[in-house]
Every structure is written in C-alpha cells, then in structure tokens.
TrEMBL record:
<dbReference type="GO" id="GO:0008541">
    <property type="term" value="C:proteasome regulatory particle, lid subcomplex"/>
</dbReference>
<dbReference type="GO" id="GO:0005829">
    <property type="term" value="C:cytosol"/>
</dbReference>
<dbReference type="GO" id="GO:0043161">
    <property type="term" value="P:proteasome-mediated ubiquitin-dependent protein catabolic process"/>
</dbReference>
<dbReference type="GO" id="GO:0005634">
    <property type="term" value="C:nucleus"/>
</dbReference>
<dbReference type="InterPro" id="IPR033464">
    <property type="entry name" value="CSN8_PSD8_EIF3K"/>
</dbReference>
<keyword id="KW-0647">Proteasome</keyword>
<comment type="similarity">
    <text>Belongs to the proteasome subunit S14 family.</text>
</comment>
<dbReference type="Pfam" id="PF10075">
    <property type="entry name" value="CSN8_PSD8_EIF3K"/>
</dbReference>
<feature type="domain" description="PCI">
    <location>
        <begin position="75"/>
        <end position="246"/>
    </location>
</feature>
<dbReference type="InterPro" id="IPR000717">
    <property type="entry name" value="PCI_dom"/>
</dbReference>
<dbReference type="InterPro" id="IPR006746">
    <property type="entry name" value="26S_Psome_Rpn12"/>
</dbReference>
<protein>
    <recommendedName>
        <fullName>PCI domain-containing protein</fullName>
    </recommendedName>
</protein>
C-alpha cells in the first residue's frame, strides 16, 4: 500500500492530464484494497495494524479529493469526501498529514459553492482550534462571513489572496453563484440601472464580460443607452430603491434566514 501511495504522490505532482488519469485509476485500485481493512468505518476493529491502515486510507482518499479538484470534477470530489470524513470523525488519533488541512479547506469551499450552509457550520464545529487557525481552513471561514453580510467587494479582492491554486476552481463556481444572487436582487430592487454600476456590482472587470453574462443568463434585461432596464420589474410596477447598500442587506437577510431554517 505504501508503494502505491508513493506512486500516487508522483502522479499528482506531475499534474498532466495523463498523470491525473493514471492517478484516478490508481486511487480506484487502492479503494478496492481498503475494503479488506476491518479497522476502517463502519467496523472500526482494533486490529494489530489499525493505526497504519487508517493513516494509509486517509492519505489515499485525501489524494483522491485533490485529484478530483485538479480534474475539476465536483461529483468525484464529493464521493471522496464522503468516504474520507467518516475516517476523520471516527479515527481522531490519525497523525496529521501534509494534505489534511488543505482538504478540509477545499471541502468548506465545496459546501459554500453548493450553498449547504448548515453543513458548512456543522463541519466547522467539529474542527479543532488548530484546524481553524490554518490559513487554508481560515480562508473559506472568513469568505463565508463576508458573503453573509453582503461584502461582495471583499469577496472580489479575496480572489487575489487564495491560500492555494486549487481553491481557484471553487472560487470560479462561487463567483458565478454570487453574481446570480446579486443579479436577482438587482431585478427586484430597480427598474433601471446604469450599465457601469451593474457591471461593478456584478464584479466584472470588462464590459465584454458583463455583456456576455447578460446575453447568456439575463435575456429579459434591455439596454437603453447607458442603462439597463429590467423588464420583469417594470411589469410588476416595482419602484427603485435609492440606496445600493440595501441590495447587500437584502441578500444578507435572505442568506441568514436560509441558514436559520
């Protein structure tokens, strides 16, 4: 098993598409081997090699989660985490690996992208102070707080302060979710809005990116000179809200309500 993990490490370090494909196959082979480990959940027998088997299993599944992110496969990432988390929970004496905190942070990013906020907070409650102090875990925790209070400007700047390049995959998906939420709030808060203001609120760096977003996802938005007209809002007879700050507050209240429920 140790030799397989060494091979897996080398393939993941390679990082090419061929290496990742081989790594995925190797992880599948390792998982087959893990079936024979009675020391793992749900049995958790105290076998003579229990400590070593649990550590090896956790390392293999941590690599599985990393490979899934590198392949940008959320379903594969979730499957690996569903197998890994019971080991973390049931076998707290496993030595800290070099990948654990990174995987913990990536899992929190995944839960944010999936908008599973109750699961997000349940996971945090199970983390130790040492876990939470690690920058890779602290990043998604702080990010969730900013999102809760509608500080989308800080969210935008967080893209330049990622603790690891692997977080980029989830940040892209999360940014898409945030943009959809902001766009929904704009529609019910305004009848018209300057296109430049809408672009800034949606955190687009260029006009072309903003126009592509509108064309792909907001077919009912109309350009009227330098302004965007929200047709659905006009039909419903809504009136403008004078303060842009209220948009952030509205999103924050809605998110907080969902968290409580």
């Amino acid at each position: 098993m140790k030799s397989l993990l060494n091979d897996l490490h080398n393939l993941v370090s390679g990082g090419s598409s061929a290496d990742l494909a081989q790594a995925g196959d190797l992880i599948d082979d390792i998982k087959v081997e893990l079936i024979s480990f009675d020391s793992l959940p749900p049995l958790l027998y105290s076998t003579p090699n229990a400590a070593e088997e649990r550590s090896l299993a956790a390392s293999a599944l941590e690599y599985g989660a990393i490979v899934a992110v590198m392949m940008e496969d959320m379903e594969l990432f979730e499957r690996n985490m569903n197998q890994l988390l019971p080991i973390y929970t049931s076998c707290p004496s496993i030595p800290l690996s070099s990948l654990k905190r990174k995987v913990q942070g990536l899992n929190l990013m995944f839960l944010l992208v999936e908008n599973r906020l109750s699961d997000f907070h349940c996971v945090i409650e199970g983390y130790s102070p040492e876990d939470l102090a690690d920058p890779q875990v602290d990043f998604p925790v702080k990010l969730e707080r900013e999102l809760m209070v509608g500080s989308y400007d800080k969210f935008h700047s967080a893209k330049a302060a990622l603790p690891d390049t692997l977080y980029e995959f989830f940040m892209k998906s999360l940014l898409s979710t945030v943009r959809d939420n902001v766009a929904d709030a704009m529609e019910v808060s305004y009848t018209t809005l300057k296109a430049s203001d809408a672009q800034r609120m949606l955190m687009f760096d260029s006009v072309d990116e903003f126009k592509e977003f509108v064309g792909d996802t907001r077919e009912d938005w109309l350009y009227q000179g330098c302004e965007i007209c929200f047709r659905a809002t006009e039909v419903n007879g809504k009136t403008d809200i004078p303060s842009m700050r209220l948009i952030g507050q509205t999103l924050s209240y809605a998110t907080e309500l969902e968290r409580i429920v």
